[in-house]
Amino acid sequence: MRVLITGGAGFIGSFLTEKLVESGFDVIVIDNLSSGDLGRLSDVIDRIRFVKDDLKNPSDPEAFQNVDTVFHLAANPEVRISVTEPRTHFDENILVTFNVLELSRKYGIKNIVYASSSTVYGDARVIPTPEDHPIQPISIYGAAKAAGEVMCGTYARLYGMNCVALRYANIVGPRLRHGVIYDLLMKLRKNPEELEVLGDGTQEKSYLYITDTINATLMAWEYAVKNSGVYVYNVGNWDLINVREIVNIIVKVSGFNPRITYRPATPDGRGWPGDVKRMLLSIDKIVREVGWKPNMSSKDAIETTAKALSQELGVGEWLKS
């Protein structure tokens, strides 16, 4: 079976690519390398077809030919940027998704797996948040992901495709190059004496380790293909962790003793306008229907990632020993 992964040189995409190659699939990766890195694919680069292309204006549409499934992960992942530069997220998240769906329709692709986000819910009124909760994003990033879900579902119903949209929580692991763990470690690498933290530290969110994420993605895909139709699943963890706890883990891993300053950007302590203050997804549906469940808690996922990234980034006194 031939599968195509957009954004396959990205964080989640590279792990998904490795897993599918190891499972014997014929894999095509499309990435414009704006944030992706071919180094992430070094272990499998000679066993895939890599296409460097910008899906905002595809130059090699025939890469979609004879493909059974598209895993659409290509997107700009920076929620903060979406607030200050909304056009970027329209182009890279909404326009790209439309182009991917159009090419999938043109070449008769039957299965779409769409990487959505917990940010589609905005400030959820129900915690843990189920999939039938109202979609009320508070960032352009969340709005773009919600728009992508609607388009994927509509294309699936109109053109006879199967579609599964996965509303990911905060995904962490080695190779991660955005988000709170990466940002804090980079700040410590620049100045081990002082650490500025966005928000008041009370923000609470759920984190999922990358291997759990890949397992959920593949199991949901298999379920959608087997049963046909349009499916939406939350992909997150049972628990959550607050920013102050994350800061303590980062400081412990680094071995530094910085002066910590919290910088809330809003009266209620958010890190930036559009930042969701508290997020915990209900994963009851994917557990019940698909049979997936996470193996690692949010805290364990943070700790494991912090150790891996500190080595990758060269941050920490203990690295000198």
UniProtKB/TrEMBL annotation:
Which family does the UniProt entry place this protein in?
A: Belongs to the NAD(P)-dependent epimerase/dehydratase family.
* Pfam families with a match to the protein in the record: Epimerase
Superkingdom, natural source: Archaea
Name this protein carries in UniProt: NAD-dependent epimerase/dehydratase
Signal sequence coordinates = none
Mind telling me which InterPro entries this protein's record contains? Epimerase_deHydtase, NAD(P)-bd_dom_sf, Sc_DH/Rdtase_CS
Residues in NAD-dependent epimerase/dehydratase domain copies: 3-236
